[in-house]
Each structure stands twice: as C-alpha cells, then as structure tokens.
Amino acid sequence: MNFIKLDKHTEKNTAMLAKKRTFQYVINFAFTLLALSLFAQEKSNSDLASDNPEYFNTYAQEKFFLHTNKTMYFSGEKIWWQAYVVSDFSNKPMLETVNLHIALYDSNKTLLQKTMFYSNDGIAYGDLKLSESLNSGTYYLSVDTQWNKNFKSKYIRELQIINIKPEGVQENTSSDNELTSEIGELNIDFYPESGTILNGIKNTINFKLNSDALSLHEALPVFIIDNTSGQAIARSSTNHLGLGSVSFVYQPKHSYTAQVNYKNKAVKFDLPSANTSGIIIQEHDDLQSSDEEAGFTIHFSKDLVSKYHNDTFFAIIHRNQKARYVLPVVINKKYTKYKLPFSEDHFFNGVNTLSIFNQNNQPVAERHFFNKTKQDLEITILPQAVVGDSMELAVKIPKSMGPARLSIAIVPEESKLNKNNKNISESLLLEPYLDVVPTFNTDTLSKQTLDLITQIYATKTTRNPFKSAEPLFQPETGIKIAGSVNANLIANESYKVMLTSTTNSILQVVDLKQDNKFVFDNLVMQKDSKYNLALIDKTGSIQKARFFVYNTQINYKDDIVLNYNSNTPRILKSNDENFYHLQKPLFLKDAEQLEEVKLYSKENKQPKYVDLHPNKPHTLGAGFTKQYIIEEQDKRLSTLVDFLNRQAGISASVINASVIVNSTRGSNSFSGGYATQVDSTGNAPSPKMLLIFDGQPMIDHDVLYGLRMSQVENVSFNSQGAGYGFRGTDGVLHVNTKKGGSSDSIVPPLYQESTLDIGFTAANQTYSNFPMQFISMQSKIYYEALDWKPNVLLAPNRETILKIYKGQHKNILLTVNGMNQEGALIYKQETIDLTEKL
Fold first, then answer.
1. Residue 809 and residue 833: Cα distance in Å, rounded?
2. pLDDT above 60: residue 758
3. CB 665 within 8 A of CB 731
C-alpha cells in the first residue's frame, strides 16, 4: 500500500528534540521539582506510535486554506481562489499532494459543481464559474483529497451568493429588529483549565458567557463569591468574545458562585465543585522560567502520589494522533508538584495538547494551549507609478526568509464583498483543531486570548483510528488510464504500450500484460486533452493495433450531500444592508433583456433504424440485423451506453466502471430481460450479448465505457443472433467506430488518438472582471471586485513589481496570504490611499 508517512527528516528531528534536556533535582521552600531523567530520549513519533498505538500513529495528515478573491459573489461570475496545502505535523507545504478536489454546494448542502486541480508543492489555484440561475443564499466551497478522506477533515468555506434578479432573491422571514434585538437570558459555561478542579490549590477556571442573542460584545465584570463567608475573593471580566478566566484557591468544604453584573442587576451561577483526588495541568505562573522555556506544572493529589510511588507517567506534546515530544515523569510520594520545562522547538506551531499518560498508556489529564513557534513573514508593499486606471506595486520579503508564494485580492477599501474573510494563519494554526468554526477575526487577538479560545473550543483527544486497520483511502497522484490491445501478437513475445500527449508534454511507456491489458498510473493530464496510444514490439518498432480504453479514472468521489455543521445560514434579503445599493437593477454588460421565454419539452421519439438486408446481402445475419439511425443530437449529447438504453430491445448500464449490454428479447429474457444488478460479492454480472466491436468479437463490454456517439460510425443490432450460432443466442451488437471503419474492412492504425474525459482543470492565472454596470459610484465602491493576483513568487530581499487594476477608486484594500517552503506564513491587509502623491 502506498500510504503517506511522516518523512525521515521529521522523524529524526522529533528524536533530536527528545535528546535536548536532562533534569536535576531543584529544591524550593514552596515545593520540590522532581528530577526527570529522560531514559526514553531516543523515542521518535514512530517509536511512540509503536509503544502506544491506541492513541498515536505515523500517517501524515494534510490541512488546507482557501484564499478567495472575496466572500460575496453574484450569480454568473467566477470564484477566483488559491489553495494552500500543508503538513499538519510540520506546517510546511505538503509536497506529496497532487490531486486537489474543489466542490461547490448549495444552501441545502447539495453538490452543484466539482473539479480537480493539480497541487504543485502545496499550491493550487484557479477559478470556478457560477451558474446564473443560483438563488441568493449561503453556499459552501470544499477542498479535499482522496488521502484526506481517511481523516474526515474536509476543508469548507462559506460564501454568500446574490442573484440580483428579483426572482433570485429569497426573502428572509426574520426582520432586522429580530437580529439586533435586546439580549435575552444570560448563561455561563465553565471550563476548568485541564478539566478538573482540586481542593486546596490554586485553580484556573475559564468561562464563556452567552445569551439568546447572536453574541456579547461588551466587557462584563465577573466576581467569585465564597458562599461560606459571603465575600468576593476574586474578580475578572469578559472580553469582546464573551470569554474570560479567573484563578483562586478552592478551600475544602467551600462552595463558590460566579456573579455577573448584567443590566444593572447581579446574575449568579454556581461554580463546579472541587475534587479531593485528581491531576491538573497548569502553565507556570509563580515560577520563574527563562525566555527559552514555556513550561507547565503538573499537580497530583496526595493520594495519587502515594498510590503511584515509583511509577512512570508520561507528559506528551501531541495533536491529531501525532506525538512531538515526550517526558517521562517518575512519581515520588514526597512530591505533589512537578515542573515540566519545554522549549519552543518542542511544540507544534499553533494548537497543542499536553496529555499525561499513566503507566498503562492511558490519558489521565490534558490541557490544550496555543503557541506560535514561527512568526509570520513580514512583507512590504510600496505603491509605485499610477497609469490611468492601473498602478504598480513593489512587493518584498526579508532577505533572511526563503522564497515565498502568495495570493493577493484587491477591492475598494469600503467593499462589502470581502467581509468575514479567513486568513491563512487562523485557518492553518487554529481552526482545524476547534469544535466550532470561529466567526471572529483572530488576526488582532493576543496570545492570551488565543490560548483561552483553544482551551474552551479545542477538540478533545481521540483514539488512533488506524490502530486495528490501515487507512482505507490511498493517496492519488494523478489519473489512471487502463485498457486492452487488439492486434496480431506473436506468442511469448514482449510488447509495450506508449502514451504520448503534446498538450500535457507526456511520453510514457508501460509493459503489455499477458492478458493484453495495460495500465498507466500517476498521469498529470488536463481534462478534455488529447493523447495517442501506440504498440511497440521488442525491437522498438511500432505495430498496428487497436486500443480499447475501458477505464480512465480517479478514485475520489465527492459527497453528494455535504456533512457540515455550522451556524444556521442567514439568507440575504432584499432589504438587507448588503442590498442597500442593489434595489435598482445591475445589468450585465452587452446582455439582452428578453420579454418572453419559451419552454420546450423533449419529445420521446420512437427508435429509428434501417434494415441491412438487402443493402448488405453478404453480411452475416444481415436479414435479421437492423442498423440504428444516429441523429445529430445523439452525436452531440450522448454516450453510446445512453444511446443504447433508449433503443427498444436493449438494456445498457454501467456498474462499477463495467459496461453491461443485454437483450430484453433474447432467450434468457423474462418479463423485461436481464437484471443489471451487482451480485452478492459487489461485482457486475457477466454480459450475455455478443459484441462485435470494429469487426472483432469482444470478451466483455468494457470497451464501450465512456465511448461517445460522436466517435461512432454506426450501430446495428441482431436481436435473434441469426448467423452466429450458439454465440448469438442472446443477440449480437455491432459497433463500428469512425477510426475503426466498417466490419468489412479493418486496418488498425499505428497511433490511436483519444480524448481524456477526466483530468485536471487548467489553472487560470489571468483575472477577468465580471461585466457589470453600476448605478452609482457608491454601489461601485461597495460591490466592484478590482483584481486578483494568484501564485505570486517572491524572492528574498528582491522587489517584485505587480501591475494591478485600481479603477476609479481613491482607496483600495489589499488582502495578502502566502507561505514559504519552511512553513512561515504571510498575512497582511493594507489600505493604499491613492489621493496621496506617490
């Protein structure tokens, strides 16, 4: 199996991290820090996965960020995007990812569009055309890979789409007053720092205030009341997200209340009670740590240190079943408090989990925390010359950083098209590890607030899903083309099949198998591109042959219905703020307004055919054979399977990429003929009808898979099988392709050209504006998208000059996302004042 594992370099670094420190006894009047001798210094993530397969594995995992040119679109225009794919372990570009699948889902989370793009060194970009008939509402854009299906972590972005035609705008039944109504009943949720509260020590309790309204934006004071004394013993307050924390010593046999001053009255909530036995994890507060250390302290209750005296516990830094660093802790009954000094290189960039595992490798305590181990890349953007409606920008990154690739969205400063846009930092470092999708911008949040968000919303540690079975889905690295060869082959001679494509710059050769079949794997080819196949003998000469390509495939299957839980989508309505300047129509440029629309129904026609007899009196079974008339609409729209399925007396279907064609009038038919169902093993039934393809009897019908009517010269059907003896008992189907000619004369070509019906969508780097006319300059400021620059390559300490469209606007807003090869991220929003002299 071809699975993606953490690379050797990563494994080596993990082991080296574990060698860096040994620890000595440090005696203090308040407590004693136990010496931690790293007897397991050599353990890497692979070793840990072997020692504790219940929770850890070595399978590399992808995570994604999708930068779109805006977040609100009009039906009929294009979504311009750039995707970033990185390793969950290292945050570096995921070089192994090739096939990247982009899909669009409607407000009901039903699949609308799907396409596949080529990921090059963790970057893919392109555009997606929206249908003009889409209704206004919330839509979903997903990014996924075949390998990522194993982890069920598809990346999803919410987008707003507006249909400016009156019938396309869906009314929202709620009013603006309802959305901004007075806050209702107040509630509070408590989250102890590591899930447990212990008596007799200082505990930190995080909390989240919420109400019946959308959110709480004002800071509210919170007091902790000792119910025994009635006194306030601690004070805190909420931040603009309704979150906060408070620390105080829980006294035995005391209970506590949180009092929130709210709407000029005190609202009280009971705090959770404390335990007499347990383990908690806290960040150093009263300890003096060096700048290189970001340590934690483990508190054990007295009964536990006595119970586990001389036992070894393990403090492990991990996330998503990948361990980054481990410290063995030998328990001594004299000490209840243990300091775990870590340095920055022991942590993941972003969200981390510190778990304490007992001697049986079971977690007994955990604490989530946020730590940024790599600073974002600084990027300088300097306006240059302005020429007409365009301008030049000089973009630069520091000399100390490696080359970086980025994407830039350009809109007017007051644009309403780019609200609530995600940035690369929050999407890669925070969002994948939370139970909820954050609706707040994390760019301006402090480390303390990010850590608080992580503690409250982080996903809890789960067991290794691959303990008893390997991943079900293997990674995709291109597409597959499989088929068979029909030629005069010399027995026991070796042959090869050559595939060439000028469009895709490909020349590849594979061995022809003994059953005359061939398979090309890992092909990077554009959808609808042409390619040639040729048969080569052992001398290198090209031999005449006919190729039957029965399988061009990718393994990835898009979800028909998206499994995604988010806040209830708010359907945009005509009197919403976003429609402030859309009350009067916006017209597509060069569009024609029609006063009348005519609808046509499709007529279900009777099949048309001609008898071959007496036109071909010497053709086998001609008197019993009817040749179907292929009309122009069949050539444009139909595959052969679809065409056959519409003909009387024939049943055609595709099951698991196998084609089954049977007669509904043959000797084995009864009440409708053969059932084209899979059998008990999941396989398709064997075909019964005899197929004569370009004059050659075929063992199976798979040669018809994907064959379009535009490639077919003629089709005829002998329902009685007359002239073919026992072989024709269930009917005979003749198919002659345009290259194959008629069955009377077959001259195989040296090269056979085919068109790929699947493949990668070509990346479009040249942005084009959506053709719209605005009724006023203000509506243009709100709703005009100016420019989009994907795949911008920056060399260190060297200016890159970009020419962008600015239109007639006085101020424009640039949104920049990107990364370099070492996983350092770039995010910047910058306003350029064009009224200033450049």
1. 9
2. yes
3. yes
